Amino acid sequence: MYNIKFNSYIPQPEPAKADRIVAAHYYAAWKYGAAKVHGGFNDLAEEYPDRTPLMGYYDEENPEVCDWEIKWAAEHGINCFIYCWYRKKENMGKPVTVEDLRCPHGLHEALFNAKFQKHMKFALMFETSIRWCGTDETDMIENLMPFWMENYFKRENYLVIDNKPVLFVYNYRLESCFKSVETQKETFNKCREYAKKHGFDGMIFASSDVASTNANYQEQISRGYDFTFGYSAGYRAPYDFYENEDDIVDKQCEKFISQLEIDEMRFIPTASCFSDPTPRFTQHWIDLGCKYREWSNIWYLSPMKFKELLKRLKKISDSLPEGAWGKKIIMIDNWNEWDEGHFVAPSHKFGFKYLQAIREALTECNNLPDYIAPHDQGFTGYNKSWKTPDFSEFCSDKLK
User: Fold this and answer.
1) Which of 251, 80, 74, 261 is CA-nearest to residue 168?
2) What is the CATH classification number for the domain harbouring 327?
3) What percent of the residues of the chain are helix, what percent strand, and what percent coil, each to the nearest 5?
4) In the chain, what is the greatest distance between 2 CA atoms, to the nearest angstrom?
5) What SS3 class is residue 331?
6) Confidence at residue 5, expressed as pLDDT on a 0 to 100 scale
7) Is residue 27 part of a domain?
8) What are 291-295's contacts with CB under 8 Å, separation 24+?
9) Per the domain annotation, does 9 fall within a domain?
10) DSSP code for 398
C-alpha cells in the first residue's frame, strides 16, 4: 500500500521528554550546489547506497523535509539542532545578508518555514576555519551581532539559557581574527552588552575543543568562553576498521572524564556513533587539501553499544555538581553528516536504531514514535535535484 496518502500532512510530533538539552550537530549541505566543496548526495549515489536517508535523497531547503526531521528527532529526545553557520570570505567587514552565507537554506528556507519548528530549539555554530570568513572586534559588533540578533537570537525557538542566547564557536581561537586573546574577550563582553540592550541578560559563548589540556582550558577562559563542547567525542581509533566496541565506549567516556578532571563545571559530553569518512578519501578531496585518510581510521558502534555509551555519559554527568554545564547539555555527533560518515538520522542502513538508542538512554520514553517512512504514507517528491530518484520502495519491516 505504498504511495497512498493517509494524511494531508505529516503526523504531528509527540516529543519524548528529556531532563536536559539533547543537541545534535546539523550540517546543512544537502541543497543541490550549496556545499561547493563537495557534490552532496551525488557523491554517494553510485558507491554508497547504504547511506541513503530514509526519505531518499532530498532537497534540504524544503520545509516539509525539515518537518520530518523535527518529528523524528523530537520523538527520540533530540530537542535542539546546532546548525553550522558559515559566512563567505568576501563578506568580511561588511553588513551581512542571507546571500552572504554558505548553506543558509537549512535555517532560512527550511526550519523557519517548517510547521513543526516550535518542537525544535536551534543554535548557531559559527564556523571560522580559514576557508570561511572570520571576524574581528569591529566586524563582530557592527555586522555579525545585528544580523544574529534580528534573524536568530530573537526567535522563540533559539537556544537561550538563563535569558542568554548561546553561540557555539568552531575554532575557538578564531585564528587571525583578533589582535590578541584580551581583544577577543573584550569583544565577547561587548557582545554580551549588546544582547542586554535587546532584552537579554547577556550571551553565552561555547568553545570547540575535544583535545583540551589545562593550557587550552586556561586560554579559553582568557578568550571569554563559558563552556567547552566537541563536534565529535574526539575519539581516534588506533587503526583502520577498528572493531573493539567496548574499547571505543571506554575511550569516549575516558575522554570526557579527563576533561572533567581539568574543570568539572565547564565541559559537556559529546557522544559519537561511528566514524567512516570513506567517501572523502577520493582524489577530489585530496586536491582540496583534505587529509582525511591520514587521521580518520574507521570505526562503528552498534546502536546497542551507542545506547550503552549514552547511558554511561549521562551517569557521569548526573554526578556533577549543580550548575555544571555537563549536567545541562549532551551533544550528539551527528544528525546528518552523510558523506563525512557520522549520522543518527534515519537511514537505509540503520533505520531508526540510533535514534531509538538516544530515546531509551536519555528520555522518559513517555511517547510512542511513528516508525513510518514518508513513502509508506504517500509523501513523495522530496528529490528534484539529485541523481538518484526518490526511494519509494523502502521496506517498512527494516525500520525497527
Assistant:
1) 80
2) 3.20.20.80
3) 35, 15, 50
4) 64
5) strand
6) 64
7) yes
8) 295/236
9) no
10) G
Q: How confident is the model at residue 288 (pLDDT cuts 50, 70, 90)?
A: confident
The CA dihedral of 241, 245, 250, 256, to the nearest 10 degrees, is: 70
Residue 260 near residue 320 (C-beta atoms within 8 A): yes
Which amino acid is present at 325?
Answer: W
pLDDT digits (tens, 9 = 90+) for 51-93: 999 999 999 999 999 999 999 999 999 999 999 999 999 999 9
How far apart, in whole angstroms, are the C-alpha atoms of residue 55 and residue 327?
34
Answer whether 358's CB lies under 8 Å from 310's CB. Answer: yes
In angstroms, the CA 281 to CA 274 distance is 16
Answer whether 271's CB lies under 8 Å from 249's CB: no
| Residue 165 and residue 195 in contact, taking contact as beta carbons nearer than 8 Å | yes
**What's the gap between Cα 327 and its chain centre?**
19
Integer distance in angstroms from the first to the last C-alpha of the chain?
19
- Show the domain range for 157: 21-398
Helices (H), 89-244: 105, 137-139, 145-148, 181-197, 214-222
